Amino acid sequence: MPDRACAVRRTAAAVALLTLAAGVGIVRWTSAGNGGGEDEGPRARGPAPLPVEASSLYQFDDLASMVVASDLVVRARVDSTARGRLVGEGDAAVVSRIDTLEVEEVLAGDASLDSAASTLLVEEEGWLGDGTAIAVNGLAPSEAGMDAIWFLDRRPDPEVPGYLVINHQGRFVVDGDRLEGADGKDPLVAALEPLGPDGLTSAVRQVVGASG
Asked: What's this model's pTM, rounded to 2 decimal places?
């Protein structure tokens, strides 16, 4: 991929949270939500996240495009989550969620940088300014203990080093031999879920082999 294209893609990824923050004030809430506290892992029983819709910088029609656009694809488990920074102002403000991932396997990307480190930081949309947890475009909040296959974009931001999930299509939760994407109505998510963890892993490696 040309250097200029990489720079444009990474700049777009860096402003993904800002783009969401700018849109939160004008999207239509699809259900009512209450303010919540910090996550306490998968056993926490708080109000359901408020579903919101927001424009995405990416929308993929096939797996190959998503793999090529990702800086890193990993199988990883969420070790912990924490509140991050406040992005935006007023009604458009969003508090980010910082996930610490324990990497089990690097499927695509720069393994020389990432396979040596057992953990990664991923920043995602977390809460409204009043503490209400949100699920953006069907992507539910990450929880401690969650095992998933992640398609990630590297952040060039020294304030919050780490990665962003590339878009709402870019995380598949592993549940035994099943995969669960953000939105089963999305054509790509619907096509990849039946592959299961092993099938998706093999498909990603095939894309890497074909493009390498």
From this structure: 0.78
